[in-house]
């Protein structure tokens, strides 16, 4: 599978890759093991520092790894990885090594121990910023501390989950830049 | 503009319209006035009861209306409303009546005082369920108490914000239902 050569990317602009609501792959590391989970329930929360919220079910093998390590990497895949995305979501890290099983390449992160996924076009290194609602709602609030994004594709064909095994693939881009007040851009 | 005839919709299934990450229009009512704001930072949080989180900036005219009334309606527009969406996001309810200004029809909700927007194909009536992170993060956690969705279009062309005045329009659907474990559907 294609690996993306990513570059440093401004933290201020990460919304460009997360606000559209794509399925992301969350990688983690804890006590010498790594894991990957799919995540569809997430949101931007702040520009600076860059905050991002994500829901993790307690039943996920990644839950304790991420809660204990207080770190993860949010990786954004495109539609060419659809079968890998589905396979990751339908298997458990308690039984398999997902990097090995799904032939994914673990890249070295700069600020966290969790690995980047080289086959994803964007990877965001995260440290846990607020765990207030982790016990009651499963809501982890992350500070993105380092961003890596491949310069192309410019408008990546991300996948967005509709439930029931169906995905929406990112379609055409539409600019209305001229209709925005400058302070709203 | 086209009004959608919506029907009752199972609360359990609202993720089908929200998890993909569309721009939504949030309508509110407080002390005899109504307002509408655009929202792109939001996420599903729970199936039953149906919980949904959304970020509202304190600078929005809707902020106090929603914080005080503890209610809102989350309406999902499609790409035919793109110019209305942009105009709503670039104007303030402190200066104009957005329903009147943008020729939108306020429908009667069942469980809340905030109006439905008839031109949106889906509307979700919400009551504030958790305000823990409202002061610090602007994060409102809503319980969706009533859902209305038009039976068509089946795969609506929602719009997803990329920042910088650019939108991604929902593209084709892709099913991988056959690759899911039954308990994961």
UniProtKB/TrEMBL annotation, chains A, B:
SUPFAM superfamilies for the chain: FMN-binding split barrel (SSF50475)
Record keywords, A-Z: Flavoprotein
Lineage: Bacteria, Pseudomonadati, Pseudomonadota, Alphaproteobacteria, Hyphomicrobiales
Boundaries of every Flavin reductase like domain copy: 16-168
GO terms assigned for molecular function: FMN binding; oxidoreductase activity, acting on the CH-NH group of donors, NAD or NADP as acceptor
Family: Belongs to the flavoredoxin family.
InterPro entries per UniProt: Flavin_Rdtase-like_dom, Flavoredoxin, Split_barrel_FMN-bd
Domain of life: Bacteria
UniProt KW Disulfide bond keyword: no
Name of the protein described by the UniProt record: Flavin reductase
Obligatory cofactor(s): FMN
